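Project channel, design review

CF: Before we commit to the Bifidobacterium dentium JCVIHMP022 constructs, I'd like one complete example in the thread so the newer folks can see what an input/output pair looks like. Taking Glycosyltransferase, group 2 family protein.
RD: sounds good, go ahead.
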Amino acid sequence: MTVPKVSIIIPVYNAESTIGRCLESIRGQTFQDFEVFLIDDGSSDNSFSICKDFAKSDQRITVLHQSNSGPSSARNHALNYATGQYVYFADSDDHLEPDLLENMLHCLADTHSSLAFLRYNLIDEDSGEEIPNTRKYNYPTARNLSATETLRLLLPDNFPSFVWSFMAERRLFNDSPVIRFPQNILREDQAILYKLVDRADSIGFVQRKLYNYHIRGQSLLGSKSESTLMITSVIELVTERQCYLDEHRPKLRIQTGNANIALLLYVLKTTENIKSNRQAKALRKKCISLVHKYMVNIGIRNVNHDNMFQYLILKIGLFPFLFFIKKTIHIFFKRRISR
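CF: and here is what came back for Glycosyltransferase, group 2 family protein:
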């Protein structure tokens, strides 16, 4: 049996209205040497049946099933079955440009890289139209960079670091110690990506927008429990990231510290509206303690200007006002888009 070039992994949970679109965009790729793993994560709708129908008509598609355990568990499950030289992840409610695989593989080969990143479009799910991305990235213009150079840009979020924004050699996940997605946290892609970059000798960058990320109406932090999970996730992420990079990339101590401070301040700002919750209040207090710790670790004079400004805003109690302004702008922007 021939080993496929790329293993595509897609967690599926209650995606009966979108999984077909996603799979058609994969079957329509200009590069056809791939295998697809669909992991049904305990769906309660017709997703599992739709996946099985696709698998019957295309032998490259394998359907796995598990009780509802979350996307991280689903991806880890499929990684144990994947046989391709490269691994690519997609979400079941998004779709790929026809030449995504071809462009990514060309970049990896031409730059002798083991990891490559891409750019993406934002698509309004209701209208199907592309919408402006308010997030301004400083995406690298170089065709490839070293691991250290990439980490310097990745840590401050200068380019997209989503699970579907990269293709990697499968060995990066499986070399000892194995890298797997942490479960029961948010931002699980950020929690592993710096480790994959650290293992790669060279990292490629594709300049084209090859992935279509569909924006839906739901807010990620729609409840107190979700906001609490976000705080817990960020605390876990920054703590492990600091330990890992202190050991593996000690010369990036200042960049790592500033990245962790920025993420902690961000979550403090976006969860300001739930600080009356007792559990959230305790977690926010821990976040503030970590901000102080990382500031001391890297030295106050090495804290970047934006972090220092955000910290001073926090100290004088203006985060609620900034949260209100940001929410108002977001609502206004959504109304403009819907017209």
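RD: helpful, thanks. The chain has a mean pLDDT of 90.
CF: The domain at 6-215 is CATH 3.90.550.10 (Spore Coat Polysaccharide Biosynthesis Protein SpsA; Chain A).
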